[in-house]
Predict the structure of Signal recognition particle receptor FtsY.
Amino acid sequence: FERLKRGLSKTHETIIGRVDTLLLGKKQIDADTLDELEEILITSDIGVKTTVDLIRTLEQRLKRNELQDGEAVKRALKEEILQRLLAQHSRLDVSGKNPFVILVIGVNGVGKTTTIGKLAAKYRAEGKKVLLAAGDTFRAAAAEQLELWANRVGAEIVRHKEGADPSAVVFDACKAALARSSDVLIIDTAGRMHTKVNLMEEMKKIRRVLTREIPEAPHETLLVLDAATGQNALSQAQLFKEAAQVSGVVLTKLDGSAKGGIVVAVSHEYTLPIRFIGVGETVEDLREFDPAQFVDALFE
Ligand code: GDP
């Protein structure tokens, strides 16, 4: 919890710092106070839709005399954010499929390879057999980095030469995962800046191969977003959600960023479950997302 809190400290200072200045010690909550709170939330990357929804709810609770002072409004804000996170929340459960197939997507630089390495480490630590597929065949460095992770955590890897067809890598990886009875197959994909059309074409091709080789695969399409990029991350969420059948999200680099509010926006506004959050560079810093823990770390 302390690690998480440290990771979220910049977001805490920026959002909750301003909320505290506005609300704490205030005996009377009027329309102006709510306007100012709305302004704080909108500039905190929580998203306009979610902010309006939160403010409306607080307004109603004030009208019903449920909230007497600033402290009560702050507590209510925390409760309401938590409720909205819980409504979208579900854990990624990789058990019961052999292999469970995770297709990892996202633009270059967001932390995709690192996230795959950390996930592989996590599943290895649980005693699972992990196979990585180096589906980003456009950058030799991506496959090399993935291989380093594989060696480091004791996972297997399927990789082809630079420029190879990603679908061929996926095909071989499926065969290998079945032959070696892997528990989890994690597939890296190319992260060139995407247009919706070529993204859809690429995904279709990979999915066709996957589904043919392993029924129901991919079981999870995991979108990696860099929280520090704020609004950019949100437009990526929109694009990939429409074009790539995203089923879960990893938000990286929450440490060192004041834009942690986008956790709320991605979850509530884009109705995507957050599976993991990255709050640092080490393996332990990729954490399973826990809404209650998250709001505690954010508010306290
Ligand atoms: P890719 O191009 O999407 O595969 O990105 P990489 O996995 O190579 O990551 C890019 C950089 O982001 C690397 O230096 C990582 O160490 C760093 N990174 C990834 N996740 C996190 C995180 O949660 N926090 C911090 N501080 N850095 C991260």
Notes: Strands lie at 100-105, 130-135, 156-158, 184-189, 220-226, 248-252, 274-278, 286-288.
